Amino acid sequence: ISNSIPSGSIEIKNRAVIDSSETNSQYSNYVSTMVSSSLGLSIDKLARNITTSSGTLSSVDARPGDEIEFSLIVRSSGSNSVTNVKVWDNLPNRLTYINGSTTIDGYSHGDGIVSGGIYIGDFSSQQTKTVKFRAKIAEASMFNIGVTSLTNYAYANAVGVATIYDTATVEVKKDSGCSPSLQINKQVRNITQNSDYWADAVFANPSDEIEILIRITSVGNETADNSKVRDQLPVKLNYISGSTTINGAYKEDGIIYNNGISLGNLYVGNSKEIKFKAKLSSASEFGSSSITLTNYAYAWADKTCSEINDSAQIIVNKQQAQNYGLSITKLGRNLSRNQVEWQDSFFASPSEEVEFSIQVSNFGNTNLNNVKIWDTPPINTLIISGSTTINGVSWGGDVVGSGLVLWTLGQGETKTIEFKIKIASADNFGAGSTTLINMVYASADNVSQISDQASVIIYRSGQVLGAGTVKTGVNSMSLMVLIIVISCFITFFIYCRLRENKLLEILASKKESKFYKALIRFYFKVKYLFVIRMMRFKRVYW
């Protein structure tokens, strides 16, 4: 059967004829065959990640900046030839065609597939051609964190054949960057001197034994995977082997090495306490004067931007002298959510009840007198009257305002003040998160004022429009603006009052600007209103 049969169906009859001269008759019959002829195209669109050497699939994974190769497999699916086959491709945003990358069955072809299309010739029945080209994914700044699907459409048609298409998808993943975030707090205490409190700095003598506390908390938006911590001991402070614990369980040595020790995966809000001991060198290693040893701790996790660190100090005196030392620690917890652990940053919602703890300690070697503590709760919070306690004993006053006086705090003594606060209702907060920072201050004779803070991250459901940080204290910006405006207003009227005759001449002039004249008219209008009011006042009261 010929390939030239036109598109559609046709009946082909095969007839046989028999002639008989004896009977002078003719006999005939035929066999009928229905033949269908069609024009058709099929297209298959695939993709391959060149950067990662992936397979050729209908969907591939990629990252910003990767190079992708697209394949268009075009086949004549009918029983007849097709002519003038055309293919074109519609790249989505954030995919850019790489010039000179188009090939047809492995042979280079001119550009144009993404800008109007290219003709790839005539196809005989069941013939296949493969068109390939490459595109580059945009840089990371063009994508949101997570996975973005880029769908690429390819099209084909021919004379007498309607347009067909197929798609391939590129799943672009952008890492969350710094979404995992860690918080670190480091403190120390002197075991040899029987200190039972933690502080940012302690006094010590040569050969004293020091215990070090490192608290790591996950405060980001996602789990901090593979969290680690390490410590860098200063010279003359020596690690005591076998002393490391994590949340009370002993851990193998390694915290003072560069690789540190593993804390595992820390979910958002989770924290771990790492403790270990170190011993100061003997007296022969120190001079006669005081020396401060600074001890740093570092923490990091997968996908965090960098290491974070905190430090504590050991002040070493070879000869015992009178040292004044006052420390303060502010922590909080959410009572409405039955939170037990004290943290320096925690979550809450509007109308919930939270509790704060203030721990003041004398880490010097002499008593402290006139120890005073005062707290400044942030706006949109209200202290619950009668909730203040000192070492668990109810205290009639409040720690806010003028604060409270502990009078004398003995050497090594620690006192804990606790009080409760009610957070304002939801209509006092915008949608999203607001961070309320609660500051506390302490002072004593011979000791400068010190402070610490704890923060409450308030979440209100709704579209996240932004996050604010509210600090306690007076904001004088509005007052300053008001003073400037009033000063300008007074200066303007004094200036006009001293030059009234000149101003009248300006009003009569045709040269000055309309704005200047409007200001002058404003001055006279205010003046006359003031004069009229004064005349009425005199009539009534004088």
TrEMBL record:
Gene3D superfamilies: Immunoglobulins (2.60.40.10). The keyword Transmembrane applies. Keywords: Membrane, Transmembrane, Transmembrane helix. The chain crosses the membrane at residues 477-498. It comes from the Bacteria. The keyword Metal-binding does not apply. Residues 57-145, 204-299 form the DUF11 domain. This is DUF11 domain-containing protein. It comes from Candidatus Portnoybacteria bacterium CG10_big_fil_rev_8_21_14_0_10_38_18.
